[in-house]
From TrEMBL:
Positions with biased composition (Basic and acidic residues): 44-58
Protein localization: Cell membrane
CDD domains: ABC_NikE_OppD_transporters (cd03257)
Recorded topology in the membrane: Peripheral membrane protein
Organism listed in the record: Nakamurella flava
Listed name of the protein: ABC transporter ATP-binding protein
Superkingdom assignment: Bacteria
Region (Disordered): 1-93, 123-145
Gene Ontology cellular-component terms listed: plasma membrane
InterPro entries per UniProt: AAA+_ATPase, ABC_Ni/Peptide_Import, ABC_transporter-like_ATP-bd, ABC_transporter-like_CS, Oligopep_ABC_C, P-loop_NTPase
Biological process terms in GO annotation: peptide transport
Lineage: Bacteria, Bacillati, Actinomycetota, Actinomycetes, Nakamurellales
Family of this protein: Belongs to the ABC transporter superfamily.
Keyword presence, Membrane: yes
Length: 690
């Protein structure tokens, strides 16, 4: 069947062009030969259908649904959704005609010089699962009810102002906004009296500790407040002319589709676990080549092979990059980035920040960057807003807020930053003289360890991905070894093999020493906690072998929570009711409630604000000194690696390329790759006012 609009395929530049919300009564029809029949009974697309001949001429097209209630040939049964290639046109005048070259039932050519005549009105093609959409706007104006204009040919999708917004005004306006939620049966105020504007082309940094309300403000802007928490709001949150807390869901969905992009803190809860990465990105791009280009832009190595894997087969950093690629694919007017760099190494963090800059500079995109790292915010933000206990305590130009803070809370955030220049605390020194104990076997020994993964590629045999390639390491008892490297370099896979969660393809791993064996603190706290159990039940599971009474178990749980800075009432909450930083602390409490022999930390502070990160690092330090634990600490933060590690191992593409004392590796790196990592560390340039 010939395309009625030749040359239009792919004209949207791989961008999403989906249909606005419609009443459920309308059913779309498919393209039939040279004619199109719109949905029958759709109040938005009423039409007068005329049948020139009630007889059924040989070779004519199938009857359409609506006149004789027959299903369109090829249309899905029982589905009222738009299918790939469906075209919607209001007020069509439809006439039947023969299919060219068709034969009658007797084998003779179909008779009758009938033609199919169509009166074209504004419409659009629904985007299906198997290809990009094609918009068919009327000449000289965009399709009705949409804030998009499509360039013909291979150009990119441009955008007009969404109805209700002003082209030169702010893209988002928050006025006297307050929010309260019900948690554990108690209503508490999360945000109070927020007044904020995000200008077009502006990058606004929102900083604050975990639990200060940053993520709730982001969800308010996206119109995605959790309904089960019974949100009560005051004031307004207007994005592109629509109040995202009080407008109908259809309007909010249209704004999310046309004007908003989101990069969430926990990518595992945002990606569909049942869909391959290529299909999820393809929902936006509609083209594998464009998807591969986006993945390469955000720093994904072996991008073509990554299209065929599921989210759980990627590291946390790679999942975060996939989220970033999906968010920026549609070139939204506002990107809400909720802690987008927490799971990323410093080089990819720099790439993501540069990508956000390009969106602002090249396309006029606004960015709300939510972070607890003032160094990251200082690199990209035009303005900074500091949130403390649900209230904005300081708003101003980024340079002024960072270098001359006016509020005491802002000064405390700056003082708590972990930097490469801060003095190394004596408590980080070796607690034992393991260097002299040559007869003591190492707590962990890795001999020529290699790990390969088979990456499927549809019906093809696929390729082999080498995650760890011939690693040899000895970790003495009581030592803390920090492992650094980019996402995908094999750090997490190495830890999972030591923990027994993965088996090496070749080589051997040997553990020595008494105790509870290896315990792991996972990078992705959200996916490592059972969502239907309370925190008290999760921690209590680790104590079952000690046969404690209910009262004693509760006391141990409360003590473990207190050690990581969480109040006792958290024991009655479920993981979904906690912020990302609080979930990460729960993961650490679960690993240390029974003292382990080897503590395996996979980015344990990546989701924590700086003050809480210091608390957690101090906890790990004290546990190590008190219990004589061996610690293997994986991180992408070189400042944390310097503080936590007696030695630092630098991994690149599955191999250890540099190994040495922490101070020596930081001060005098031998490898160019190590120097690249050090150069990408975000630092605040300039003197900070005291």
């Amino acid at each position: 069947m010939a395309d009625p609009h030749p040359g239009d395929a792919g004209s949207a530049g791989g961008q999403r062009l989906s249909l606005p919300a419609r009443p459920a009564a309308g059913r779309p029809a498919r393209l039939v030969a040279d004619g199109v029949d719109p949905p029958a009974g759709d109040p938005v697309q009423r039409r007068d259908q005329r049948l020139v001949d009630d007889d059924r001429p040989a070779g004519r097209t199938a009857r359409v649904r609506g006149h004789d209630r027959r299903r369109v040939r090829g249309a899905p049964r029982g589905s009222r959704r738009a299918a790939p290639g469906d075209e919607h046109r209001p007020a069509l005048v439809h006439q039947w005609g023969p299919v060219p070259g068709a034969r009658g039932r007797s084998g003779a050519a179909a008779a009758g010089p009938r033609r199919v005549g169509l009166v074209h009105h504004p419409g659009r093609v629904a985007r299906g699962r198997h290809g990009p959409a094609r918009a068919v706007p009327a000449a000289g104006r965009p399709a009705a009810g949409r804030g998009r204009v499509v360039k013909r040919g291979r150009g990119a999708v441009g955008k007009t102002a969404t109805p209700g917004s002003t082209p030169d005004g702010p893209v988002a306006v928050v006025r006297d906004y307050s929010l309260s939620l019900v948690r554990n049966g108690v209503r508490s105020e999360v945000l109070h009296g927020i007044d904020l504007e995000i200008g077009r082309g502006e990058v606004l940094g929102l900083v604050g500790q975990s639990g200060s309300g940053k993520s709730m403000l982001a969800l308010s802007l996206l119109g995605l407040l959790p309904a089960d928490s019974q949100p009560q709001t005051g004031g307004s949150v207007v994005v592109a002319g629509v109040d995202m807390v009080s407008a109908p869901e259809s309007q909010r969905r249209a704004v999310r589709r046309d004007s908003l992009g989101a990069i969430f803190q926990d990518p595992m809860t945002s990606l569909n676990p049942t869909m391959r990465i290529g299909r999820q990105i393809g929902e936006v791009t509609g083209d594998d080549a464009v998807s591969i280009g986006l993945l390469q832009t955000v720093g994904v190595r072996d991008a073509p092979a990554r299209l065929t894997v599921f989210p759980h087969e990627l590291s946390g950093g790679l999942r975060q990059r996939v989220m970033a690629a999906i968010a920026v694919a549609g070139r939204p007017a506002l990107v809400v980035a909720d802690e987008p760099t927490t799971a990323l190494d410093v080089t990819v963090q720099a790439q993501l920040l540069e990508l956000l800059r390009e969106l602002r500079d090249d396309f006029g995109c606004s960015v709300l960057l939510i972070t607890h790292d003032l160094g990251v915010a200082d690199q990209i933000a035009d303005r900074l807003a500091v949130l403390h206990h649900g209230e904005l305590v300081e708003v101003g130009p980024a340079a002024a807020v960072v270098r001359d803070p006016q509020h005491e809370y802002t000064r405390s955030l700056l003082a708590a930053r972990l930097t490469l220049r801060m003095p190394r605390d004596d408590r980080f020194d070796r607690a034992t003289d393991a260097d002299d104990a040559t007869d003591t076997p190492p707590a962990v020994r890795l001999t020529s360890v290699r790990k390969e993964f088979r990456v499927r590629a549809g019906r093809r045999r696929g390729t082999t991905l080498i995650a760890v390639d011939g690693v040899d390491l000895d970790i003495p008892p009581g030592e803390s070894l920090a492992v650094v490297g980019e996402s995908g370099s094999g750090k997490s896979t190495l830890l999972r093999m030591i923990a027994g969660l993965e088996q090496p393809t070749a080589g051997s791993i040997t553990l020595h020493g008494p105790g509870g064996g290896p315990q792991m603190v996972f990078q992705d706290a959200g996916s490592s906690l059972t969502p239907w159990l309370t925190i008290g039940e999760l921690l209590g599971e680790r104590l079952r072998g000690e046969h404690l009474s209910r009262t004693a178990t509760r006391e141990r749980v409360v003590a473990a929570l207190g050690a990581v800075g969480l109040p006792p009432e958290v024991a009655d909450a479920r993981p979904g009711e906690l912020s990302g930083g609080q979930r990460q602390r729960v993961g650490l409490a679960r690993a240390t409630i029974v003292p382990p022999t080897v503590l395996l930390c996979d980015e344990p502070t990546s989701a924590l604000d700086t003050s809480m990160a210091r608390t957690v690092l101090a906890l790990i330090r004290d546990l190590r000194a008190r219990l004589g634990m061996t610690v293997l600490f994986v991180t992408h933060d070189l400042a944390v690696a310097r503080l936590m590690g007696d030695r630092i191992a630098v991994m690149q593409q599955g191999r250890v390329v540099e190994l040495g004392p922490a101070e020596q590796v930081i001060a005098e790196p031998r490898e160019e790759y190590t120097r690249t990592l050090l150069a990408a560390v975000p630092e605040i340039v300039g003197e900070v006012a005291s």
